[in-house]
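Put briefly, the fold is written as integer tokens. The lines below illustrate.
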Amino acid sequence: MLLADARQLPIPDNSVDLLVGFDVLYCIPDYDVVLREAHRVLMPGGALLLTYTFLYGAVGSHDYHRWTLAGMEQDLANAGFHVMAQKKRGGLMFTLMMMGANLLHNVAMGPARDSTDRSQITILLRMGLASILVFPFQLLGWLALCVDHLLPSSGLYVGGMVLARPVSQSARVPG
């Protein structure tokens, strides 16, 4: 197990088979540095598996980016990757459920701020209230995913999943 800054990994070049990141890029202002670093440490034939946000409410003070499928594909290409597979996460109904959950969570928690400006008990009480309010939307979200499979694809989705491989050394575009 390794705990390190994703922008400067203490890992040798071409030494990792698989890098995985679940909804982390939106928290990093210079995410492009992370993608280039991932490219550096992946072995030839290695893979990068990412999930990322698109249509979802702000989740805190370090929330910088949202991607469409095409936007993520372009950013990965700019970092030297070829997208092998990409898929939307959720659809219209799931997005609506998650937007409802996010709205209730934000109402219960109040505006995002440094946790040191409120007492610990207040934060815990607000978190408990948020969990109770959001729970029905989370449950309905599972049903919404099933309904989304029956509906035509729409432009509403909460994010994406992508599997990408570094472009081979010989095929890389200088830049």
Summary: The first helix runs from residue 31 to 41. Helices lie at 31-41, 69-78, 92-109, 120-150. Residues 58 and 100 are 13 Å apart (CA to CA).
